[in-house]
């Protein structure tokens, strides 16, 4: 039975890939751009939703591959997009439902792009800011994520072990109003984003 399911999944993937190319999406461009505008345009195009989902996920992957600066912000979206594609392949969702889920991811991606422009932060500092912009502990303590992002920007170039300790100590200062555990978690996330 397991062999049958694996074979079915493989054949489904092949059909999705073939439809993505046959329905015109592949002929227009090697991969489509993953954003709200493109997704809305694709909804009105002829062709299978499955093929459109495949091309959108492929477009997101290409964007990550082509732009290392935005990759850390986009990677969680890509992981979620790939789960949507996998659910589609395993027939746990429909093409239409997958398109709706991708629309939410595209809106999130567009919001990040606008925020990156508005903040004026360097890509490394923005990645840390974006990872923390909705952090409840920061909001409760009255810490403004953008101000924290600006502090991070001043510190992100530190790389050796001694400098990493200095970075951690410097990050604790603007977060002093947080309780110890949330403060440590926030600092760990910032350091991981900066040095990752």
Kindly describe this structure:
With 196 residues, the chain is mainly alpha-helical. The protein folds into 2 domains: 2-119, no CATH class; 123-195. It has helices at 2-22, 25-28, 36-44, 49-66, 71-89, 95-119, 123-132, 136-141, 145-155, 161-172, 180-195. Helix 1 crosses helix 4, helix 3 packs antiparallel against helix 6 (95-119) and helix 7 (123-132) runs antiparallel to helix 11. The protein is elongated and about 55 Å long.
Write the layout of secondary structure elements.
Elements: H1 2-22, H2 25-28, H3 36-44, H4 49-66, H5 71-89, H6 95-119, H7 123-132, H8 136-141, H9 145-155, H10 161-172, H11 180-195
List keywords for this structure.
196 residues, 77% helix, mainly alpha, single chain
What's the total number of strands?
0
What is the beta-strand fraction?
under 5%
Shape: elongated
Cα gyration radius (Å)? 20 Å
The quaternary organization reads as single chain
Structural class: mainly alpha
Order of helices and strands: HHHHHHHHHHH
Low-confidence runs = 20-30
User: Alpha-carbon distance between the termini?
Assistant: 42 Å
Largest sheet: none
Helices, by number, come to 11
Helix content: over 70%
List the domain count as a whole number.
2
The averaged pLDDT comes out at 79
Describe the structure concisely for a colleague:
By secondary structure, the chain is mainly α.
């Amino acid at each position: 039975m397991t062999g049958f399911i694996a074979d079915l999944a493989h054949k489904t993937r092949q059909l999705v890939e073939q439809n993505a190319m046959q329905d015109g999406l592949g002929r227009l461009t090697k991969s489509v751009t993953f954003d709200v505008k493109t997704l809305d345009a694709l909804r009105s195009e002829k062709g299978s939703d499955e093929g459109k989902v495949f091309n959108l996920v492929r477009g997101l992957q290409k964007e990550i591959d082509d732009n290392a600066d935005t990759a850390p912000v986009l990677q969680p979206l890509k992981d979620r997009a790939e789960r949507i594609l996998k659910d589609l392949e395993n027939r746990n969702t429909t093409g239409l439902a997958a398109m709706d889920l991708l629309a939410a991811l595209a809106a999130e991606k567009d919001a990040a792009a606008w925020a990156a422009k508005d903040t004026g932060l360097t890509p490394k500092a923005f990645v840390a800011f974006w990872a923390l912009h909705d952090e409840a502990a920061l909001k409760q303590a009255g810490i403004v994520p953008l101000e924290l992002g600006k502090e991070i920007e001043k510190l992100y170039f530190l790389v050796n072990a001694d400098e990493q300790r200095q970075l951690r100590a410097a990050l604790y200062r603007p977060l002093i109003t947080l309780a110890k555990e949330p403060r440590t978690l926030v600092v760990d996330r910032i350091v991981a984003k900066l040095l990752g």
